[in-house]
Design brief:
Elements (H helix, E strand, L loop, with lengths): L12 H4 L1 E4 L2 E7 L6 E7 L1 H14 L8 H19 L5 H22 L12 H8 L13
Antiparallel strand pairs: 1-2, 2-3
Helix pairs in contact: 2-3, 2-4, 3-4
Length: 145
């Protein structure tokens, strides 16, 4: 396999501090404890935005599907997205995506019942996860050297 000279380039993280590549953001930081240089790997802001847009398209009161069918479609997307991005330092991002998913589903359920709001006091998380089998494996795997 040969490298394409026009598309390939070398980057210096000392100058750039952050680089986005294949949906990940590589950021050079200094450890607070040991003062050594580290590279943090997390989903790029662009990838997070596309993820939220995709969730918005899959979970909507405008889609003529039952809640269970919408969640089934969403689960397929979430499994793929989280498996790709669960490496490195993605726990905060995955937590935000998890919260966004819950917010969208709660809003959908409330709209279907003709209510306003998100139903934080009326619908429990356990009900959503057990009744609708919503995906909930947002754990991060460490990078192996």
């Amino acid at each position: 396999m040969k490298l394409n000279k026009e598309k390939s380039r070398r980057l210096n993280l000392k100058e750039d501090k952050r680089v986005e590549f294949l949906g990940f953001q590589f950021q050079r930081v200094q450890s607070r404890k040991t003062k050594k240089r580290l590279i943090l790997v997390s989903p790029s802001p662009k990838s997070q935005k596309r993820c939220r847009e995709q969730i918005r398209e899959l979970i909507s009161h405008k889609i003529p599907l039952k809640v269970q069918d919408q969640i089934r479609n969403l689960n397929k997307f979430l499994i793929g997205w989280t498996n790709y991005f669960r490496l490195g330092n993605a726990s905060k991002v995955l937590y935000k995506i998890c919260n966004y998913v819950m917010k969208r589903i709660r809003r959908l359920m409330q709209r279907n019942k003709g209510r306003k709001g998100y139903g934080w006091n009326k619908i429990s998380n356990d009900e959503i996860y057990k009744r609708y089998a919503l995906f909930y494996n947002y754990k991060v795997q460490g990078l192996k050297a």
